[in-house]
Amino acid sequence: MTTKINGKNRRIVLKIIVSLLYVAMGVEGFVLGKSGQAIGHLYKFIANFFGKAGDSFVIVVAAVISLSGLCVLASTFFKKIPGKVVSVSMIVLMVVWTLAVIFADFIDGFGDVSDFVTLVMWLEPFLIHVLVLSATVFVYGGEVK
After folding, report:
1. Whole-angstrom distance between the N-terminal and C-terminal Cα of the chain?
2. Which pLDDT tens digit goes with each residue over 32-54?
3. 8 A C-beta contact, residue 15 and residue 75
4. How far is residue 135's CA from residue 1's CA, in Å, rounded to a whole number?
5. 113: left (phi over 0), alpha (psi -120 to 50) or beta
6. CA-based nearest residue to 81, from 68, 63, 93
7. 91-96-98 Cα angle (round to 5)
8. Exposed, middle or buried, 65 (CB in 10 Å: 0-12/13-18/19+)?
9. What stretch of H or E contains 60?
10. Is 80 exceeded by the pLDDT of residue 5?
11. Angstrom distance (rounded) from CA 29 to CA 27
C-alpha cells in the first residue's frame, strides 16, 4: 500500500525539520556559548561586539533562537499558541539566519577568495546556507501575518 504525500504534508515535515534545526542551533549556543557551524560566526560577532559581557549576550541570543524554534515547532502540533507569538518567532528566525549567512559567508568567509578553487570552496557552504534560508522563508514566510 502506498500513501500519497500532498503539498501540505511536505510543508509540515519541512517546517518540523527547519524548526528542529533552529532549536539545535540555539541549544548549541546556549550550552557551548559558540558553534562551529554558520551560526557560530554570528555568536562570535556578538561575543566580540559586547566584550566582557559578550558571552552572556550569546547565551541570551541562543536562548531566543531555541525558544523561537520551539514555539514554531509547538505551533505545528498545538493550535492554542497565539498567532502573533508564532509570527514573531518566525521573523526572529528568518532575521537570525540571514545575519548568520552574512557573517559566515561574506564578512568572515569571502575575504579568502583569491582564485577559482577558493571561489568554488566558498560557494559550496554559501549555497548550503542559502538552501537553509530558502527553506526557512518557504516554510515561515508564507505564514507570517
Report:
1. 39
2. 776 667 688 888 888 888 888 88
3. no
4. 30
5. beta
6. 68
7. 95
8. buried
9. helix 54-77
10. no
11. 5
CA distances from 131 to 114, 142, 145 (A): 24, 17, 23
pLDDT digits (tens, 9 = 90+) for 87-117: 999 999 999 999 988 888 888 767 777 888 8
Model confidence band, residue 73 (pLDDT cutoffs 50, 70, 90): very high
Q: Grid coordinates standing for 68?
A: 523561537
Whole-number Å distance between alpha carbons of 100 and 118: 20
- Answer yes or no: are the C-beta atoms of 64 and 92 closer than 8 Å: yes
Separation of alpha carbons 59 and 11, rounded Å: 30
C-alpha cell at 2: 502506498
The answer to whether 22 touches 12, Cβ cutoff 8 Å, is no
pTM over 0.70: yes
- Report the C-alpha gap between 38 and 73 in whole angstroms: 21
